[in-house]
Fold these 4 entries.
Entry 1:
Amino acid sequence: MRTRRNFITVLGGAVAWPLAGRAQVGDRTRRIGLLASLPLRPIVRFHQAMADLGYVEGKNLIIEARFAEGRDDRYPAFAAELVALPVDVIVTWGTPAAFAAKRATTQIPIVMGAIGDAVNTGLVSNLARPDGNMTGFVALNVELEEKRLELLKELLPRLSRVAILLNSRNQLNRVNLDTARRAAQKLAVAVDAFEVQSTEEVGGALRAIVDTRPDAVLLASDTTLLGERQQIVDAMAANRIPAIYPFREYADVGGFIVYGSNISILFERSAGYVDRIVKGEKPGNLPVQQATTFEILINLKTAAGFVLTLPPSVLVRADEVIE
């Protein structure tokens, strides 16, 4: 494996959180709520960043994590639990989690650890001055949809039909689909959308995609789909359908190509916002920041299974090539 970026490895699903920070921030215990689908690498980075800021779990920090495990319908109840505790700040990953937190409270500060789009989905009206109790970090997934399609076209010059797998319960995915259709029209590429609303529907959607034999598949930015990444990647490989993915975790299980924001870095920066908020800053005065670090990951072994020859122009732009 050739890599230009370091990343954290979680072995066997077990996560060892840091026990001490570099600097102490006082004896008062801060209680942070966390809403996400799964305890993946970005969540590990958040814990480590909090430790680096001097927060020691079990001493001056309690993290109340609620993981929906691909069930977006769980978020409202989880958000209500965190509000009832109460927590000092709620940190979210993904659009459904952010909406659940927003609907649950107008008082407790909310930090969007990673959100695909905050304005077009209606979470905030202004990035520079979000006002209210919400701020955070945007992964720019709406803008990246066009770039993902352009990358597919570069890899597959004869690309004429793309299937998009998306979660229709995710407000971001509806915005993304409109963006993808506009981009596809410019590239003279037809788009077929395959929608799911739960993890139980993913298998049927994959079979429907295979039956239509698209030239390629684009996976929407969604944590419910991310939880089914092994099933999705295996289906693409078994049927020799190239697919492009939004999150690094797809590459970890053999996904062909990933193009997206570095979510771990966004969660690391989120820890800084949490620190500032618990020390007295108002979330509405902290601008919603956009991602500045993006990554292209390519799996050459998977490409070989598709009998694809990758152009040097793509390989040279890759941040990581898995051989």
Entry 2:
Amino acid sequence: MMFPALLIVVLNNYLPMFGVFIAFKNINYTDGIWGSPWIGFKNFEFLFSSQSIWRITRNTVLYSLTFMVVNLVLSVGIAVAISELRGRLLAKGYQTLIIMPYFLSMVVVSYLVYAFLNPDRGFVNVLLESFGADKVFWYSETEYWPYILTLVNAWKSVGIGAVIYIAAIAGIDPEYYEAAVIDGASKWRQTIHITLPSIQPIIIIMTILSMGHVFNSDFGLFYQVPMDAGALYPVTDTVDTYVYRVLMELNDIGMSSAAALVQSVLGFFLVLATNSAVRKINREQALF
């Protein structure tokens, strides 16, 4: 029964790892990948010698950490709220509504955001003008976008996280809650002393796995949603968008592979470091 799933994992996740050697070659399309010469670490130089390295690294890491914290809090909160609903049909309806944005293309999401933030006819500017305030040119004002991107990411991603935690809460033995009710515990105390400790292992595992993506960013979120506006680069430019723009000019897949390899290696060591920290605190809660 496990074989089909394992085969998909091998084909999609492990087989492409043989392409890592492309990061160390100067790809010549005439000679092909195998015939192209080896050039050592030269493909890595463009990323580390860039004047924008500090900006794109700062943006990538800070956004990733912010998204992790915000999405975790919202996902757990929504999961606890939905699990308290007594009507199964109502609970299923809410689950469906919150998970739907996860399946939307980021291109579609970018146009939804544009409908709200259009400088002339956007919903937000129309609302501001109705209250006598001045219009905001959203796609040229950098100070708003850290909040906008966090909100959009949460709206799109919180649902899938909430479904995972709802499943974890469903596995808690109801006798714990029955005993708490007999002792006079309120819903708040039941959540603090039963629900959260019971799903703590799932929260820790999800956090450890998320640490592997700290140096990666959602390309669609940071490229499509801000409409690749140059004025917003100080707060929307990440490693992925920077590499994409540079390589669209150079058309060098070796450099692209080098950047992806750096992100993967850093993410791998972050997962190991996070898991090691968890093991020192509580060995049973560690992922491995």
Entry 3:
Amino acid sequence: MRITVLTVPDCPNGPVVEERITAALDGRAAEVELVEVHEQADASRWGMTGSPTVLLDGVDPFAVDGAVPSVSCRIYRSGGRTDGAPSVAELRQALTDAGLPQPAHEDCCQTDPLDPIGRGGRGRLAPAERGLRAVQQAVLRHFAATGRAPEPAVLEPVAAAAGRTAREVLAELDGEDFLTLEEAGQVRAAYPFSAVPTPHRVQVAGGTQVWSMCAIDALGISAMLGQDTVISSSDPVNGENVTVTSTGGTTVWEPASAVVFVGRRCFSGPAAAVCCDAVNFFTGRASATTWSKRHPDVPGDIVGQARAEELGWRTFGPLLAQD
């Protein structure tokens, strides 16, 4: 497959789309050609309807009816959001639709079930480029301080330091699955936090109550914030309470037999859809086994307390420790 990236000179989203194409290819072979377009005639010849335009074997998979060739900036709209380039997920889908075979490890049923969020457990820390990490950390700190998601306006000064708007940065964070947005652009979740109630409530020392996306996310909050927490959840099978209290680095589970089932569904998508509701606390291995048998479409593993805590720490511990 030949991938052609058409941009105007010095397009700020040129490097962005190149980076996302590399991520979407995920090691698959393709010829990537970069073409700088200066004149309207060249835009017409190539079919560039704004910069950047991506062609897959000469076809624009993101073409919009009525758009005309132009030497101008291009805006991509998806799910009520705007961005200066297609997201990795959108590019990956476009490559698949164009006939490029999936990567050998794309089937989540064959991935490590103990890495529920992918990217080797390192993927929740956004890159420092383009204000992504600064805005992500601002969102997380707002959740930790208030228990609620910040309004985009609150994030404007942080995004402005990178020369961008909050909505631009949030859209990119959403596209790369560092957080998820509502249709109107409000933050619905920023792993490990959820803006809406979930089965996992976390009381942070000092009085703030937050919701986590899953059991591993809940266990990562204490490590991320460096604060004591009390997790209150329940066994999805028998409805009995599971409590995890972290005090001064020591964790106590009640009941003492409690475990975590770490599962993920067999399709591609954001963690919120693929695995968050398949990563839960159980009062014991018998209950977790019962749940697993009832959900044969969700492969995974039952992990003990120490391993579950390690996953939470490894995934979320670094998020606020790096600038």
Entry 4:
Amino acid sequence: MRTSSTIHWITAVSCLALAGTAAADKPATPAGSKPVLGDGAAVGQAAPDFTLTDIAGNEHRLSDYKGKTVVLEWFNPDCPFVKKHHEKNKTMQATSGKYASDDFVWLAVNSGAAGKQGSGVDRNKKAVEDYGIAYPVLLDEAGQVGRMYGAKTTPHMYVIDAKGTLVYKGAIDDNSSPGTLGETNYVANCLATIADGGHPEPMETKSYGCSVKYAAPAGANVP
């Protein structure tokens, strides 16, 4: 005769076995899933170093710019929100031009995968000409640098001070519409504060724009 404790033990083992079977049957990555991005680079911490090549074939290593203020702009020339600040308005050109000096670097980074919207050397060369971009556009087709920084949108802005510390990340301004400029240019304010020897506030805002067109991670089941 089975005791009550024996029955409870058998029931528990059966439940564990069923749970294990259900977990084994559940796919690890659903088909069509998007790459998952973490928070990326942390404000107040050293900005992650990287090396990328621009559309002219020149190599850029972030650590080579230590001692300078560096702005990183995530870029996709065909994104309506990028066009808002490059075509309809000249936000990026005006802001970068105002602070242009030997102690200042502005770099656009395109983390779009090969074949996706706004990717490739030729498309970005044309964008540089059409938009009148005076600073380098770096290609990150593998998406390694974009994921390292946690870049989610185009544009997504990052400001790094002369010590190599990330002091701002987020939106370019405070209006997330695809056509209307905001009243506050966060990046311009950040750069002005740095120039005056102060600490930027806010240090982080929510970026807006098109999603970065990342390549699927190796092994992901994405059609």
